[in-house]
Specification:
Radius of gyration: 25 Å
Number of helices: 1
Distance between the termini: 75 Å
Structural class: mainly alpha
Largest sheet: none
Shape: elongated
Order of helices and strands: H
Length: 64
């Protein structure tokens, strides 16, 4: 039985597999946490986006 594929040792392959599994687990936990919590709308909350438009900023107009 071969102990190496010529590039990585068996221990290095095992460590890489564990790293991939842990990264996948962390990503899955992040997705679950986003589903349970309220949407992230920034530090000011949703009310911060209801402010009047900035002076000098016009709404989109068709180019003629």
């Amino acid at each position: 039985m071969r102990g190496s594929n010529g590039v990585f040792s068996p221990q290095e392959r095992k460590t890489a597999l564990w790293a991939l599994l842990m990264a996948g687990l962390i990503a899955a936990m992040g997705v679950v946490a986003q589903q349970w919590g309220p949407p992230s709308v920034g530090p000011g909350g949703a009310d911060a986006y209801m402010a009047a438009p900035s002076p000098g900023v016009l709404d989109a107009q068709p180019v003629s």
